[in-house]
Structure formats: C-alpha cells, structure tokens
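TEACHING EXERCISE
Course module: macromolecular assemblies
Task: Read the component lines below, then compare them to the predicted structure of the full complex.
Student: A.B.
Group: 4
Components provided:
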Amino acid sequence: MRAPGVIAALTAWTFAAQAADPATDTTFDVESFEKKPFEIGGYVETEWRHFDFNRDGALFGLNRYPDLDTGGNDQLEGTLHLDGTLRSGIATLRASGEVTGTWDDIGEDTHDATLFEGLLALQPGPGVTAEIGKKALKWGKGYAWNPVGFVERAKDPDDPTESREGFAMLTGDLIASFQGPVRTVAFTPVVVPVETAVNEDFGSREGFNYAAKLYLLAWDTDVDFMVLTGASRTDRYGVDFSRNITSNFEIHGEWAYITDSARTVVDPNGGPNRKVTEDARNWLLGLRYLTERDLTVIAEVYHQGTGFTEGELTAFYDLAHEAVETGSASLLSRAIATRDAGYGRPTPGRDYLYLRVSQKEPFDLLHWTPAATAIVNADDGSFSFTPEVEYTGIDNLALRFRLGYLNGGRDEEFGEKQNAWKAEVRAQYHF
Amino acid sequence: MFARLAIVLLVAAGLAAPAAAMEPQDLLARIDRNLNPESFESLRKLINIEPDGTSKEFVLFTAKKGIDKLVGLFLAPASDKGRSTLRLGDNMWLFIPEVGKPLRITSMQSVTGGIFNNADILALDYAAEYTVEAVEEKDKLLTLRLKARTDAVAYDRLVMTVDRETLLPVTIEALAASGMLIKTLRFKDVKDFGNGIVRPSVVETDSPLHKGYKSLMIFGKIAPRLFEDEVFTLNFLPRAQELR
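Instructor-supplied answer key:
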C-alpha cells in the first residue's frame, strides 16, 4: 500500500464520507458462499390449466374423436425439478431431471420422470473439455425457433424457455482466445449414437451421427458454423450470428440448409399420403430492443422450408374434417398418421412472425412484469395471442398467469387447433 | 540490482506524484487501480430496495482480467443461482441454465433489476470506456468530466468526484447524451481488503428516473487473481461455476 499518510487520509475520508443508510444491513458473510464439492438445487412447481376447446377445429376433432361433446378441460400439474453437481479434481458429474404428475379432467392421470441431462465432464483446463452422457445442446440465436438446432429436441415457441430433454452423446469444447478483431475461436465436436433404447427418437436409422460447431467472436459479432452428418438424419449445414448494434439493440439470425428433407403430406385429391423429399432452407431474422422505460421488444421472422405449404396444410385440415364428420376408419387412420408425422406439431407451416413485448414494473407496480406474445402464421394470417403477467415479489417464488387466445378460420392454422383459448396459473418455488 | 532499485524509485515517485501533476488519462487509470487490481476475483452482494422498503438480494462472484474481460456468476438467490454473465469489451452475454445457451444482452438492461444496469454490474475500468475531458480541483475534491469513447458505452458522460488525497471516487453522476441525469453512484465505507486493496466497500445508487428505489453493491472480497483468457468465452460460460 502507499504511504501511511494516505492510509490516514483514507480513514479520515471514510468517517467524513456519508455513512451508508443505517437501516440497510451491509454485512456480508463471505464464508457461506465458498465452493462446495456437492451442490443440489431445483424447484417445485404447480400449474393449473384450463383449455376451452375449439369445437370447429380439425385438430380438436382428430384428437378428441369420438368424444366430441366435451367443451373444455382442466389440468393440474405438479413438478419437482432437481439439479445436482458433484466435483472432484478435473471431473464434474452433473444431472438434471424432474418428476411430474398430471391430474386431468378428461384424460388419464399421468406420472412421469425425465432425466434432462446426466453427464460426466472432464476439464483439464479452461480451453479443453470432454463430456459424455446425456446433454441438452442448444444451438442458434433465435428466441422462438432455432433452425440450426441440429442435435436437440424442437423448441415450443409458445414457451421457448422451458427445459428440454437432451440426447446421449460424446462432446466437448476446444477454445482459443486471441487479441485483435477475432477474439475467440471455439470448436465443438459431437457424436450422437442411435440404437435400441438409445436416442431412438433422434432418427429412424441406427448408427452414429457426427455434428460440429465452429464459433467465432469476430468484429464484435457472434458467428457459428454448424454441420450434421451420419446415419439417422440427412446432412445439414447452418450458420448463425448475433450482434449488438447499440447499447440497447441486438440483432440475430440463423440459416440452415437441410438436404433431402422429407415430409409426409396429405393428397388433396384423396389419394394415399405421400412422402415429399427435397432440399430445404430454414432461416430466421430477429431483434431485441430495450427502450429507456424498460419495455423489451423481441421480434422474429421465421421461414421454415421443411414445413408444410399452405395447400398441404389445407389438404390435411380438409382430410381431418372429413374423417371426423364421416367417422371413416380409413380416413381417421390417414389423418392421425399425418398428424403424428408432422402436421400436429407447433408451427408446422412455412412462414411465421413472432412478437413479444414485456414491460418491467409499469405504473410503479413493483415486481410485476406484464408481457404479450403474438405468433402469426404469415401465410394464412391466423395467430395466437398470449398476454401474461409475472410476479416475483417473494424471494425465490415466481407466479405467472397467462391467457392464450387463438384466432383463425377454416383451413387456417390457428383456427384449426384443438383449443380456442386457455388460461394458466403457475407457481414456481426455487430452493 | 541498480536497475531494479531505479525502477522501484521511479514507481515510488509516480505514486507520490500529486494528482494535479498527472496527465488526466493517467489520473483516471490510477483511480481504476485504486478501486481494484487489473485482474482479480471478487464477491459482491447486490441489494435492490423498493420504495415500500422491501428488498431483494443477489450474490455475485466476479472474475476480471485485463481492461475488458469479465465473468459474473450468481450464487444467490436460489432462483438465480447458476446464471452467469460474460463481458468482452462492449459485448455482453447472459447464460441462464434453464435456457441452456448464452444470449446477448445489452449494457442498458439489468440482469438483476433495480437501479444497477449491466454496465454497472459488469463494470470495466473507467479508463477503458471514457476519456477525460476536464479535471477541476476544489477544496479536497477533484472533479473529472468523462466522455464515452464510443456510442456502445452505457452512459455518454460521467461526472466523477474524487477525493484528492486518496484518489478514490466519492460520487459518480451518469448522464445521457442529452445531459439528463440517469443515476448517481455514491462510494462509501472504505475497507482494507488485503493485498494492498483499500477502497469503498459499498456503492449506493439511485436515479431520478426511478424515484424511491435504491440499489447497493457491497463488496465482501476482492483479491488479485490471474485467469486464463479461455475463461472469458461463450463456450466456457456454462461452466463458470468451476472458476470459484
């Protein structure tokens, strides 16, 4: 330290300076935050949902047939989510999973246990990591969709931050840092095996799949290049980027090229379902903007070349309506087969717009964050609109109330969904 | 031997040099070094106090290297534990374990809410982000008028009041390009953290834009530590817990 006189001056200045507010406890027990070899945490969650059925919707008829008189459903779900870490030397064992019980008015009550991740990581230094086990890799920069997420389960744009189950894999990271315009280069190789009881839902054919991601931080821009090849999925290539334009404005994008993308489509002329195979391009452009008054806007445009065209969607909806109206076993079988092959997934079409606006603590309402989200099928104009409000005024407790309203007509995506609207109340307590 | 002695004498002379005799930018760099070593680890508590008196606390481990590399890891509360942040110059990211990948954030956002925004929580050296336009001396205080080097810096201007003897900040007023006062930082309760680090242990802030709100940053530990460059990368961010 410097001369004793300076210390004396510091001491004098300390007393002369305005003391911290005596009402505020400024003590800090540093020891209680020392790193521990074993840590466990998680949350308990309970969620009540009410669904009001869209009785004119093709998916309502198909999902509920022959019980078509039910107007709605109430569900109660309880979840215990646990995350644990065990460390020893360069090795870290990490696991994450949850048990869920659902009590349903019209369906069967269910109880599930899911291991999202469970892996062993070896890290001899910060620049080298090897991992083996089940891992939820998440690639891409998009908020609602990730066209370059080649080795992960699809995200639900209606709740994109929900936990997702990973795949069993061998992966790792090689990281190098530099001075100059290219500041970071990182390489992530991935091997995903598919065989009986291992990653069976990754692809239909057994064998090994190889993926890799090259990340660059160059000229203040994140850029990733991805590739996937192997036995179970067709080859695909991707690139993404993200960049801050100003101190409150971010832009991002993704582009993916999928070779021999196959989809099972309904023949509008009544013929058997057929498989269409073609190379496809999926891409996304988005932005995140924060105003001076803490209003956050997230907007994204998504083109899904692997999705169904407007005509293909119409053919499916018509088939589903005809199957339900006639009760024909063969038509129902065809409709259900195509629903399960892709038509029934969230956002199965070609072009979408996503807009989410959230306002932190408006009108001095402490701890309340209202938000509204719209997902628009840009081809047919139908949309979902989800206003919500979250309250975080109690330590470690988050309360969320959401309404979901779907709007669209006959042969339009959101007009043919199972639900007309839904309400959700969720309480999540972290420990 | 003589060369080493000469260096020691030169450094000692530099330390003893009166603030007024220093180049303004060197003065700002000296203030930075008085606040913390260039590379260090720290443990901080952030407290957001609402107008009704309720408060929310966060505990943040921080690793910093050089002038513009910084990683933050939340240790509490349980709802935020495991979240980590990375800053490389003007670039900032947030990793949320549930989301599973780093997202770009901006300096005007706040990962904790409250009056401190990301630029405050992940603060770099002032000399790295600002140039000194003027230095004024009055009584026992120096007033430094700072201008942001680029548009990417959170505050266009800072007015930094510094104790002339100790060269430690007393207050910092953060201004928008329009001249509007965004917030005031007040540095309090000087504490000896060891390793020659003697600095204010409490930074308090309020803002005319958020009347009645107050945020505190309480330093529990600051210690010199050298990290490898690869620690300050997106790929390492999900493993930031291993730094402690």
